[in-house]
Amino acid sequence: MRKIKIISIAILGLLFAQSCELEPEIYSEIRPENFFEDDQQLVAFTSSAYSSLGGYFGQMIQEQGVMSYELSNALRSNDGWGTNTDLMAHNFSANEGWASGPWNIAFPGVATCNRLIEFLQSLDTDQTAAIAELRALRAFYLWIGLDHYGNIPTELRFAEADPTPSQVTPAEAYAIIEAELLSAIPDLNPAKDQSTYAKINQGTANMLLATLYINAERYGVSPKWAEASAAAQNVIETGAYSLESGYFSNFLISNEGSAENIWVIPYERNQIGNAIAHATLHQSASPTFGLAAQPWGGYSVKGDFYNSFDTNDNRRGMFIAGQQYTQEAGPLWDATQGFIYTNASDEFRIIDCGEDYNILSNVERAHWGFVQLADGQSAEDLSPAELQAACGIVIQPNPNPIKREVSGRAEDMILYREGARMAKYEHEIGSGVGTGSNNDIPIFRYAETLLIRAEALWRQNNGSAEALSLVNQIRDRAGLPVLGALTADDLYKEYKHEMALEGHSRQIAIRFGRWEDEWNWKSTDPNAAGDTYLPSPNNRWYPIPEAELNANPNLVQNTGF
Amino acid sequence: MKKLINPWFKGPGTLTFNLKMKLSLLFMLTTMFGLHANSYSQNTKLSLDMDNVTLGTVIDEIESQTEFKFIFHVKTVDLNRLVSVKANKKRVNKILKDLFGESQTEYEILDRKILLRLTRETAFLEEEANSLNNGLRQSEVTGQVVDEDGVPLGGVNILIEGTVQGSQSDFDGNYSITVDTGQILAFSYLGMKTQRIPVENDLVINVTMVSDAAGLDEVVVVGYGTQKRKEITSAVVSVGEEDFNKGNVTDPVQLLRGRVAGLQVGRAGGNPNQPFTVRLRGINSISGDSSPLVVIDGILGGALDALDPNDIASIEVLKDASAAAIYGARASAGVILVSTKTGTRGEKKPRLQYNTNVSFESIARAPEIATAARYRELGGQDLGSSTVWLDEVTQTGVSNIHNLSYSGTSENGLGYRASVNYRDVESVLSNSSEFKQLNARLRISQNFFDDKLTLFGSLATTSREEDQGFQHSLSQALYFNPTAPVFDADGSYFETQDQDRFNPVAINNQNVRDRNLNRQVMNIGGDLRILDNLVLSGTYTLQRSSELIGEYSARDALWGGTLVNGWARRATTDDKYQQFDATLAYSGNAGKLDYKVIVGQSWNNQNIQSAVVSNTDFITDEFSYNNMAAGQGINRNGVVSGESNSAQPQNFVGSNRQESISNAYFVRTNFNYNDALFLAGTYRREGSSRFGANNRWGNFWALSAGADVARIFKLPVDQLKLRAGYGVTGTLPNSFTGYLGTLRLASGGFANGEFISAVTAATGANPDLKWEEKAELNLGVDFALFERRLSGSFDYFKRNTTDLLNVVAVPSPPNDVGTQLRNVGELQTKGVEMQLSYDAVRKADFDWNISGNLSTAQTRLIEFNAETDQTILRSRGLEGAVAIGIVQPVRTEEGQEIGQIYAQPFVRYDPNGDPIVLLGDGTEAVFDANLFEDEARNVADALPNLFVGLTNAFRYKNVDLSIFLRGTFGHSMINESRAAYENVSGIAIRNILVTSGEFDPTITVPHYSSRYVEDASFVKIDNVSLGYTLPKFDKSPFQSIRIFVTGQNLVTFTGYKGADPELRNFDPASSAEGRRINSFSGDRLFPGIDRYTTFLPTRTITVGVNVGF
Predict the structure, then answer these.
(1) CA end-to-end span of chain B, whole Å?
(2) Distance between CA atoms of B247 and B322, rounded to whole angstroms?
(3) Is the ipTM of this complex over 0.85?
(4) Alpha carbon B177 to chain centroid distance?
(5) With contacts defined as CB-CB under 8 Å, which chain A residues touch B528?
(6) Residues contacting B952, CB < 8 A, separation 6+
(7) For the segment A279-289, what is each residue's pLDDT rounded down to a tens digit?
(8) pLDDT tens track for B264-285
(9) Chain B residue with the nearest C-alpha to that of A278
(10) Is A257 an interface residue toward B (CB < 8 Å)?
(11) Pairing state of beta strands B335-340 and B351-363?
(12) Of B31, B282, B531, B1011, which has the fewest beta carbons less than 10 angstroms from its beta carbon?
């Protein structure tokens, strides 16, 4: 019995001696109380405010390119892509992914800035410049929200924030953004150097201000032409920026030295990649560029847009069209001409029947004027001439869509090889080039500063000599004859061509009142390719994303959605 | 033993069986034929030349030349008698005849033993020989069998356990039977409890049979203790070994499939590496774990896959909250309590058991696809060959299982059981989806101090090697161009280069994914009987699981290697789980009131560590995944910041470690008044580190009561017990740190012209996170009639889960991250369950039992998120064709049952072959996927209304047969394959479905409508098992031998046109071709989509033998 007592006491002791501690070790995450021990960690924290820009390229250049006059993303003959005709025909609805795109750049960006500003304000050290930078960046995010959704929540607090903030009118949002920028600009770093590369400096903030003013009218405030020209002039007067002599210098893989780019998003394949090469290049482009992965070949340039360039416009080098060649044909980028083959010859032509021709039905082959095949035949049975015609990878910039009733496919379909491809941003050539391009993508560029100043002056006085001279600077570099006088069409066209594929097309078309124009895949003619288009001024705003409406009951949907 | 020459085994090539089949057949045959290998005396010859020597010398000489041993009493044999013997290669009996022919001694040869005796001493000597032979003594046992009132019982069956030898008591209750010491006599009689009595020294064994009203004294494991069945007041189902499903069982949950009302064990298709989905009483949770808590010998969260079915003694399913509340956290989805076998007390003779079986698995049903000829005829692109792709990638899967166990108890209080199990399981896919597993398990216990202290421990280890491969080769085999050759002219795999099409043979042969799993469970503890009715117990458990994954896609593998010139990945996880339990149990009584109280503490700690690395760009495929440094990808391209399943493999390096701790205190009391009224109460307070300091502790409790109306009102039935219970249990979030505001690394950090590690706030921390709670009401009846011929139970339940843990969208602004883990929403499940058993025939030679169960469970989403306006949740889109890709066909909506199938009613095809469907307003229109969201209506439910299981079990003498039917009714399924592929669109690049009676070659457009929403109700002949127990051979070392053959998934009766009408409990994560994952889990809110990538259903035939020594 004695033994038993001892054992019982031992076991009871064990029972109560156990740790009741429920505080787990945190191994793979950082506890805030253990961080911010040095400046490097502080910079690591504040630099996360720029993270939201990672999605800028896909949303602004690709998605908006498709809904504007620039890009097409039609169903292709291998059943790839497709279901984008809605977007091209402006049949917008609130529950689709693209509708959330700008929101997911803007508001997480705003909230991160809110959090960081409050954090920096709580420190004992002087953080004036860092706070000014974050306020200007927050103004940019708010402007992205305003420009797309119009009626946006503008919560600028973090800890004490309203959990379900309501919207303000576009004019109210405009006023908040303007005030924030004006207040931040004096404290911003004026330098254009390595320390401000890809960061907001004074020039960037002024450029954002100019952009806000030039578009003011559509935010429901009276026109701000004088303010726009002044803000642009502030950028010009820094003397830090100038036009590069070669247009394409700004879009090289190594474009860090560009004197023209004001603010860029730095891309580096292994950090954040923009997949422009793979998104646009034809499947057979791997041998041309030595890519590791086969390109997806979705985004191509609308035929109307391609054709709107004068044949002697240097900027036409931003498109890939015509016969495609292998790497041996020496494709290269030229700062003035863009993409060219230096050694284009027959032996380097790319032939591939697999991707288009073999998978077509005879009805489809007939539509594109290809030789038909009998049962059991494949493209290998064609004569050399027929093979060349059917299988040579010749990119046609003007698609010839087959209607869905004829092809039996899900949507109006184009051949895989149709539609000029984007080549404004230098495609890396090598062996085993991975997905993701290293070109830094400009958000603001000095050429646009000149165009904004020109437009602002012209709007105030359509005989402004300075406006004409500024536009002619741009035209001169493009190899185009100078203009003697400026019209709205001239300005619109110059904007479209100079700023092509830079994510500005929607803004430009709306400001010039051309958003409701017809173009490829966007037509009121029910017999034209794509879904029929019903123009509506409501479509100048994006719908408030359905997911956001679900999450925040105080949000109200924009008119027409 | 002499080497056995097996005439069946003629060396490689002579039989079509593979080596594994041959070896297992050989093993079975030798085991069986070994019975007859008793021929030593027949085959042994010896030569002797001895003249005038004593008999003793001759005996010594024979013993030295041979293995014969002479057995005799020295008094009865004259060893000094002088004899002469001359023999040249003569059999021993010839020599013996010469030696003893005319003497007073007679002889008998028993294998290697030669008995010598005087003629009249036969019985005595035989007994001696037997005892020398077996170490045991055979004796005749007699006795009388009486009932509780002392009245003699005639006709009681008396069986020597493990044999078919038996006897019956006569009219006066007297019996006699010859039995070996150590054997066990089983006395059985209708309506009485079977008694098992080991034979020791007593030659007279008198037995009092006690009535067995509904097996009410049967002990049921209820968590931290046991209860008698009659005392149970909650919904508990106990399944013993004899009722387990038989056949090729790769996961112990299969043992219960269809056997327990309310328990659904589901898996579509026959991928042996895919875990079964287990649901008890419907869906209880959205993001928490909705599988029942598994408790193996007291270990919470024990790993079922580490357990061999042969080692399981019984499984108890605690269905309602009043039963499960003792486990508090994690018990919201019910509890599956598994008890493993141990040494049986009183069984002095060690038992050695060997079970083996071999299974043959083949595809049960496959979609009808066009043959090469038909494909050409329909306008497919002819690539010049004719290939039956399904044949190229599939096989008859041969699986093999061995289990050897050894158990017993010693006189000084040691109990032990050791077992080793090996299984080698193949699937129908060649070169993919298979595993090999070795389990070893040891349990020991030792009593001290007159049984006042028992110490026990167990050790279990599992080593499992899976070749998971890629089941995508099956769906690719269905739809790959049937005119394509397997190989190109140059010997490489033929690939069409069409989007999302991969040579199925190449997928299997060029890509590997191996997973090694090692698991050790160690457990030690003790029970101390402080007083007769006060027991203190403590146990400590350590379960350690480590997983090592290796994946490689060859440099020329279009599936995953060509784009990156070979891709390898290694991932390892180490999961250490510790648990400490201490309980103090007291039992007592006051008059007719018996009561039990148990208090205790349970603490556990889980610590998970992992590391992963992947690399690309290999110079050779030789290394596979075994030399990660050989790839140049990391050097050239660096690593990505987050691992993804994108089509293009990436380079990645990562590691992680996290810890979770919980601690609980609990108390349970049970009252039993006169075996008629019962009351139970449970309270558990549990804290977990997965919540913030303010919400850490949860209170869980239950009350339940029962009354045996039959006993109270003396009704003429064996039992009529009414039960009612109510209780609250909790669920933990999956995330260990969902409440904690931590920082994490972010992409895109840039400063001073270079990239830096940016740090940002971690995703959606919610400091207010708290327990998800489930409250459940259970009402039940247990009954037994007609001397327990008919028995059963009926239960009604209603459970509400509130504060559902779910990752939901939060407004941005003001949040910088758009989602957060929150407590929102409510689910409600209601249902009824019924379990019945009827002994149709009970005769000495023939038994027939019919048992069945049925259940319903309807889960409704009462509220999704009170903080937002979102009321509808949508499944992801359909796959396989662009035209239907944006259709989200299943919805779960507030106020509705989980899984509403939406579609537009199909009207007809117009002359162009365009599908005409109804719009919402009843007008007709050509199907347009863009209109689906607004125009579709609810056309069917994805979850069944009724589950049914029915078993007919027969025994005639030594033959037993059981036939198990399983049915599921009222569920519909979306046949994605038909919607996408039963039309000629896309025939240029892939094969199509040509379902009989449905396919129409003029249809050119893939579409989705009510046409492809099919009733998937089914009845299956799910398991038929025929067994034969061999009669015991005299003097054989085998105590019992049973041979059996089992067929699984034999016949399916259904109107469903797809391959498998089995319920899809969840919608797997996107299986877009080119992804490298097998989707073994998914979203449980969107059941009912038959994805075209699902593994095909299989049929299995198993032959096996169980041998007891």
Answers:
(1) 18
(2) 34
(3) no
(4) 40
(5) 4, 7-8, 11
(6) B848, B849, B850, B962, B963
(7) 899 988 988 99
(8) 888 888 888 888 888 888 888 8
(9) B648
(10) no
(11) unpaired
(12) B531
